[in-house]
Amino acid sequence: MSATSSGAGLRHGVLAVLVVGVLGASLGCGGAPAPEARDTLVFAAPADATVLDPHNTTDSQSDQVVLMLFDTLITFDQEMNIVPDLAERWKVAEDQVTWTFHLREGVTFHDGARFDAEAVRANFARVLDPEQNHKRLPLFEMIDHVEVIDDYTVNIVTAYPFGAFEPTMAHVSAAILSPAAAATHGGEFGRSAEATSGTGPYRVVRWTKDFEIVLERFDDYWGEAPPVKRVEYRPIPEAASRVIALEAGDVDVITHIPPTDLARLEEEAAIDVHKVVSIGAQQFRFNHARPPFDDPRVIQAISYAIDRRAIVENLMPGLVEVSTGALTPIMRGYAELGEISQDQGRARALLAEAGYPDGFSTTISTTPRYLMGVELAEVMAAQLGEVGIEVDINVLDWGSMVAFWEGLLPENNPQEIFIMGAGASTADADWGLRPIFQTHPTNENNYGYYSNAEFDRVIQEAMRETDPDARQELYRRAQEIVYLEDPGAVWLYDNYFILGARSGVVDITLSPLGVVTFERAAFRE
Amino acid sequence: MTAALAAFGRHVARALVQVVPVLFGISLLVFLVVHFIPGDPAVIAAGLESSPEVVERIRTELGLDLPLHQQFWRFLSGAVQGDLGESIRTGRPVAQEIVERFPHTFRIALGGTLLAALLGLLVGVTAAIHHNRLWDNLIMVLTLVAVSTPSYWLALMLMLLFSLELRLLPSIGVGTPLHYVLPILTLGMQSAGLIARMTRSTMLEVLRQEYIRTARAKGLVEVVVVYKHALRNTLIPIVSLIGLRFGGLLAGTVLVESVFAIPGMGRMIVEAVLNRDFPLLQGSVLVVATVFVLTNLLVDLVYAIVDPRLRTA
């Protein structure tokens, strides 16, 4: 008995030592010492980048890393003016379709290859090749062909005069990647640190999915060398943790600050809060193919029933501004048409005129993917209830929500009122209005089957207009139609893009496109 | 002894064979569930500014246009060869994603379980031997608090205290052993409370048994009575609880991983659901389920060590 017992005791002891040892060893691994603090800037976003291939990126978390690694021919400055980047100058010919770019010499890619006109041609050939199926192909469909004139001159020829050509060329997806690296890595380009190569101020040295992306200054960068040597991207999905990590100094910069923490962080001496009006607006849209939303008066009534000021002050204080038009003020082509104030009397009168004196019942679909998505629907429901519109709320996850927006025919689409975050990534009226509201048989981008003959005519004319003043007039008319006369949505508010930074970090580049970059950022003691 | 060993071997073999249909069932169930939730991975992957042509080509590339039984067969035949396909979101092999993620989750789940087991047993036994006295009452209240504290709240409170106020521990991430302290504390507390309460009640029952009275009557020191005679007999239900908790912790790390920004399996699975990343979801659930089943098998074996009667059973 005694022998057995001590044997069992030994076994337990060994087991315990083994388990503790395994745990200790496994905890111990990967414990590299942190690099020198002031040489490394740590940035926490809510999610990791998906892909670092400009031709395939469709989310802002990827965009903002891509912008550190790649350059475009022309680019937006912080005021959204278009300025030279890889092209030193450019002009459009009399025919309004031939755009000539004179390229910067002495630029190399991270993989050592030379940047020249052939690289530009190869890039547009890549994104426009349907076989390769890059997600950003639709953005460049207006390009007919690209001609190499000499080593550092290239012509990009569009199929028709295209008014939004410059903002489209400044789009992150028009960034130039190394054709050699693209050929080597094929579909894997941009999916790992090794398979990513651009001409930007930083290069990727490590990418551990959902944990960190480590960028290092590119020593052969053509422009001014960035002050900070290393930039680390650390996704922190939980908003409260992101804020604590910033306050504790574990990270230097965060975005997506929750409304509940914003005012407190603004008061804190160790934290600076930076804001910029963005391209993003929050709306509710309608299935115009279903009664009663086929009657513009009903949508006008809903628009007047809503108290936007109350929504902004109570749900999103300091994070947004009440909308004043169909685009946000920072966008090209924006026309200020004014806030729409609550007017319940007018709402009831419009409902009666449309044949619904006692209101009607409907459903709002929403998703918590949008900040306060569910709360917004609840407030809308309460405010619509006051004019007799009875609302059910249907809360869906993102995947279920987009299933209704994949090019359905009206008879297959049961949605009635649905939440929508709008933000055209070219920051231009064309991309911000045309795909969304132009008549189309399915709802591939015009999710609510909006259709207005005059709008269609004006928006097509505007797309082909290259004179800035004439363009502006056409877009003003288009916005009067879609915002006021025959509303394509209820616009609630325009978002600020907001970030919090440790107060020693200066010169962070905050873009209205909803992305942050650090090519000029520095530490000030 | 040899006969007993052979019987034990047969027991293990039988259990291992039973694992196969369980895993097949899980694969089928997961496959069906992910394919019947609304939402199209190709649409999500393409992004909102894309076109139907792009979506259609992605769908073909991913094999999502094939009939369901063919898709399941592709998944199953790949899985038995160790090929779990490629993630839709990242385009990388699912097996590689899991190999990178699993160690983080395993560490915090194992750490949480060990913490819960050691703390729970110690506290539970202490409560039992001080039955109905101050220590017992205090422990009962504290364990009740531990069991009913939401781990999300606990995680943030620990972060506020140890990272923000005391500046002792890093708030987020992985990399050094210190990074794991708060996640393990968060994950282990609830289970520690459960194990403590279970230990206490089982121990109390055992302490009332005749043989304990005999041991005491023999004049054995109380420590020997409690830790040698009583505790061993208390362990069987506790071991099975610990085994179950480990499985539960392994599958339930998502909150802790999100709050502490740990790139583990839990977060990956939630992301996979949200992105309808079918291959990644199927692969990860299959791996977690396999570990869960193997843990239960291990618990069976530990029974046999703790209670020799079960070896021949």
Structure description:
The complex is a heterodimer of chains A (525) and B (313). With 525 residues, chain A is an alpha+beta fold. Chain A has two domains: 40-272 and 497-523, Periplasmic binding protein-like II (D-Maltodextrin-Binding Protein, domain 2); 278-496, Dipeptide-binding Protein, Domain 3 (Dipeptide-binding Protein, domain 3, Roll). Chain A is built from 15 helices and 21 strands. In chain A, helix 11 (373-385) links the parallel strand 14 (361-366) and strand 15. In chain A, helix 8 (296-305) runs antiparallel to helix 10 (344-353), helix 13 runs antiparallel to helix 14 (453-463) and helix 14 (453-463) packs antiparallel against helix 15 (468-485). Residues 1-36 of chain A have low confidence and may be disordered. Chain B has a domain at 94-312: MetI-like (MetI-like fold), CATH 1.10.3720. At the A-B interface, helix 1, helix 6 and helix 12 of A face helix 2, helix 3, helix 5, helix 7 and helix 12 of B.
